[in-house]
Each structure stands twice: as C-alpha cells, then as structure tokens.
Design brief:
twelve-stranded mixed β-sheet; single chain; 205 residues
Length: 205
Amino acid sequence: MLFKQITGAALALLMAVISFADAPDASSELIAHLEGIEQFSAQFSQTMSGPDGELIQQASGLAYARRPAKLRWQIESPDQQLIIADGVKIWRYEADLAQVTVDAYTPELSAAPALLLSGDVDTIIQHYYVTGGDGSFLLTPLNDSDLFVSLQVTFQGDMMESIVLNDGFEQTTVINFSAVDISSILSDDLFRFEAPAGVDVLHND
C-alpha cells in the first residue's frame, strides 16, 4: 500500500557521518525551514526501489498540508488513493478496493513522516536525531521500533524539494515535489472526508 510506503517506508541511502556536535545547529536550521511553511501545496512523484535499484512502484498526485495537523495526500496514478488527516483522525481511501481505513491521528512524526509538512515541528527534536544543513537534513529516529531507518528532507530555498525514506529492507522511497506553493490559502474542505456510498469503512481507532 502506497500510504504505508509514505508513512513507514524504505530507503538504502548511504550518508556521510556528521559529528554529534553539529546536531543542535542542524535541528535549529531544519525547524526554521519548517516553521516557514504554514501551508503547502504541490504536485508529487514517488518511486520505490529495491536494494539493487530495481523499480518496485511509482505514483504521482497532489499534496496539501496546513499546520496544525492537516494533510491531504491525493494519489492519482496509477491507482486512485486518498489520505486525509485533520488532527483527530487519518482516513485512507483506496478507490479500487472501495475501502476506507480510519486511524487515530498521532502527532509523532515517527508514526507518520508524511506529516512532516503539517505536524508540530518541536516534535522533531523529540523523535529524531538531525544532522546536515544547507538545505539538506538527515533525520534518524531515536526509537528503534520505528518502521524506517532514516528520512532525508531537502529544500531549495524556502521550498521543500524532496523526501527520501529508508527502511530495514534496503528499499528506497523517493518523493519529489514540483509546482510548490506555500502562500495560497487552502480551503478547510480539502481536509474533510466523507466516505462514498457503498464503501467499506474499517475503524482502527
């Protein structure tokens, strides 16, 4: 499921080791970038590859986020899927299965890295060890139970350019953003969900 790839996925990215003394500055710089993004809309393309670089899946769609805790991740190709978070619940709608899964929202980025765009930025230093700088940051979860090994986020100026996820299976998920807009006002309707008639609703919350 593409949502699971976004929120807990894979990456076999080899990064240069940066000294521990750099971490506080890196955290502050990353937080400064994220605090400048109150709302976000963009097109995205996503690929997932295996340890030998073979392509496993690819997808594209639209992403919308607004602080606090609002997210709409709209996959349009190859299959229609929709993820909406409103700060209380997360809905995952898979049109081809006519199924919606509902989970309780968690503010922990370790549970949903895609919410990096919409969550409380202060949680970063609680859940991640941050290294890097100059617009590129590597986030390593402090909790060994996390589903991914590392997350890399890259900015081009004020704009978030990409997110890369790495898991213990040495799979790599790369999400690239284009047509990024951080100034337009996003409607509340983007972050509301009503299950279409005839769709199965599964509650995990």
